Amino acid sequence: MNTRREDRKRAALEKQIDENLRRVYEQDTSEQVPDRFLTLLERLREQD
What we know:
Organism: Paracoccus contaminans
Oligomer: single chain
InterPro entries: NepR (IPR041649)
Domain Anti-sigma factor NepR: 15-48
Largest sheet: none
Protein name: Transcriptional regulator
């Protein structure tokens, strides 16, 4: 059962990281997060 809890925590953490990255990037520029950053995040998630 710990696996489900860990999966939920991990998903929440990843969502928070995504939101914070978008927030910081959008504060610095008026552009959205570049696709290359989104691709990098996806690759990092796949490695785990």
